Structures are given as C-alpha cells and as structure tokens.
C-alpha cells in the first residue's frame, strides 16, 4: 500500500449519471456530480501510478467550496461503484476560511462563514486567503509491484 500525491483541484463536474432519477430525490445532484468528477480524477491518477485498487482518497474541502460534506460522502460510494475506487474510503480535511485583516495586518482564521469580520479587531475583511479548496490531496493505492510506483506528472 502506498500514498500517492495527487494535488489536483477538481474541474467542473461532468454529469455521468443521466437517467438515475431515483438518486435525484436522495442526493444533491451538485454533490453527486462533484463525486463523479472526484472519482474520475482519482482513477486517472491511480491508473498512471499503476494501481490495481484505490483504498483511500484524501480531499481538502474548504468551508466556502459550496459543497455539503455529508451529501458528498454519501454520493462518493455511488460514484465509485464499478471503478478502481469501489469500496475505498473518502477522507475529508476541512479547510477553514482564512482572511487577511488590513487593520491587524495579518491572516486570521474565521470561526464560521456567516461573518467576515476579523475575530481580533472586529473590522470587515474582504481578502480571502483560504477556504475555497476542493482538491484531491492524494490517494492511497495498492499496486502489484511497489517498484513500479512513480509520481504522476
């Protein structure tokens, strides 16, 4: 087993689930499309690395990404079915919102996404430093020959 760095931001999702109307009522289509894009990107990286199977996918998910974490976790299993990622685990790292406070002249982490005021001085902050992430940080894969494992380019 090996951890394979991917470091790939997800592209706008492609809808590969046309005709699955039963799921439309259960899962947000937004998250299902994102899960499909995530699976497609991770599977491409796994194939480039010579993987037989993906056991874990590590995702960085920003508080401002617009993605519902629970819906994405549910959608992931549906999207992964029939791929190298079938049965794998999606591990999500929550990325908080970090803004730059012009008044304090430093980057600060916000306690939530409702108020974009510096938690130190109370001044409004307009410059977002972090919190929009939707990125595959890496994948854990199984390969037949560990010597064949090479990072993707």
Supply the CATH class: Alpha Beta
Radius of gyration: 18 Å
Shape assignment: elongated
Helix content: 10-25%
Write the CATH architecture name: 2-Layer Sandwich
Number of strands: 7
- What is the distance, rounded to the nearest whole angstrom, between the alpha carbons of the first and last residues? 20 Å
Structural class computed from helices and strand pairing: alpha+beta
Main β-sheet: number of strands, strand sense, barrel status?
A: 4 strands, mixed
Tally of DSSP helical segments: 3
> Mean pLDDT, nearest integer?
85
SSE run:
EHHEHEEEEE
Low confidence ranges: 11-21, 23-27
- Counting structural domains, the number is 1
Describe the structure.
With 153 residues, the chain is of the alpha+beta class. It has a single domain, classed as hypothetical protein PF0899 fold (2-Layer Sandwich). 24% of the residues lie in helices and 32% in strands. It has three helices and seven strands; from the N terminus they run βααβαβββββ. It has helices at 21-24, 29-48, 69-80, and strands spanning 2-9, 51-62, 89-95, 98-101, 106-109, 127-130, 134-143. The strands form two sheets. It has a four-stranded mixed β-sheet, with helices on one face. It has a three-stranded antiparallel β-sheet with strand order 5-4-6, with no helix packed on it. The protein is elongated, with a radius of gyration of 18 Å. The chain starts with a strand and ends in a 10-residue tail after the last strand.
């Amino acid at each position: 087993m090996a951890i394979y760095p991917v470091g790939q931001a997800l592209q706008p999702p492609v809808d590969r689930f046309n005709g699955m109307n039963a799921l439309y009522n259960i899962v947000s289509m937004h998250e299902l499309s994102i899960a499909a894009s995530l699976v497609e990107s991770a599977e491409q990286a796994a194939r480039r690395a010579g993987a037989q199977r993906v056991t874990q996918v590590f995702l960085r998910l920003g508080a401002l990404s617009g993605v519902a974490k629970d819906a994405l976790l549910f959608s992931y299993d549906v999207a992964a079915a029939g791929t190298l990622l079938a049965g794998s685990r999606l591990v999500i790292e929550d990325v908080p919102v970090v803004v730059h406070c012009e008044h304090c002249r430093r980057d600060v982490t916000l306690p939530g996404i409702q108020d974009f005021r510096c938690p130190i001085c109370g001044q409004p902050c307009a410059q977002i430093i972090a919190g929009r992430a939707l990125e595959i940080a890496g994948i854990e894969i199984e390969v037949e020959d560990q010597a064949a494992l090479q990072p993707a380019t």
